[in-house]
Amino acid sequence: MNVQQYIESGVLEAYVLGAASENEAEELLLYKKRYPQVQNALEELERDMEYVAEQMAVIPPPVTWSKIEASINELTITADYEPLRLRPLEERGDYYRTNRENYIEVAESESTYIRVHKSWKWVFAAVFVLGKIFLGCAIYFYLENRQAQQQILDLKTELRTHQTH
To answer: For residue range 37-57, what is the model confidence (pLDDT) as tens digits?
Structure first.
């Protein structure tokens, strides 16, 4: 292949745009070292691409830089936080022991309990009732659908019998 055909093959454009395969890139770098025409064509193409990029560039709004700067400053300037220290259970007080009247004890096993606030009782009851209503509706519509399908089959057979007579 001659050098001019190689330059016009589109490999240089693919390389500049980052779409060239590894083999194409290695081959191009080899040709670039060996042939000055390839190096000149590549440099010219890069200049042209840079010119096009400059001409098509959109100027960002003036507040963009200040937003970027504020975001970076927010990431880099952090207050010195004191690490969270957990107090032993004895120092926390008897809040959970004294407010038992607000919770319903749900036993999972002999030694483990789940504590649920009493206000959730109504939510659980509502979910249970809605579940039963939806189940009833699903069964009703299932039976209605079966009945409609059966009626359709009956009408089809009746239509066939009328067409044959």
So the answer is: 999 999 999 999 999 888 888
Q: pLDDT band at 121, cuts 50/70/90?
A: confident
Q: Give the global pTM.
A: 0.38
Name the burial class of residue 64, with classes exposed (0-12), middle (13-18) and buried (19+) by CB atoms within 10 angstroms of its CB. exposed
**Residues forming a β-bridge with 114:** 106
Alpha-carbon torsion (30, 33, 36, 41), positive or negative: positive
Among candidates 29, 5, 71, 19, which has minimal Cα distance to 49?
Answer: 19
What six digits make up the tokens of 159? 């239509």
CB–CB of 102/117 below 8 Å? yes
Report the distance separating Cα 26 and Cα 80, nearest Å.
51
Instruction: Report the phi/psi class of residue 33: left, alpha or beta, with left for phi > 0 and alpha for psi in -120 to 50.
Output: alpha
Count the helix, strand and coil residues of the chain and give each as a percent rounded to the nearest 5.
Answer: 70, 5, 25
DSSP string, 2-55: -HHHHHHTTHHHHHHHT---HHHHHHHHHHHHH-HHHHHHHHHHHHHHHHHHHH
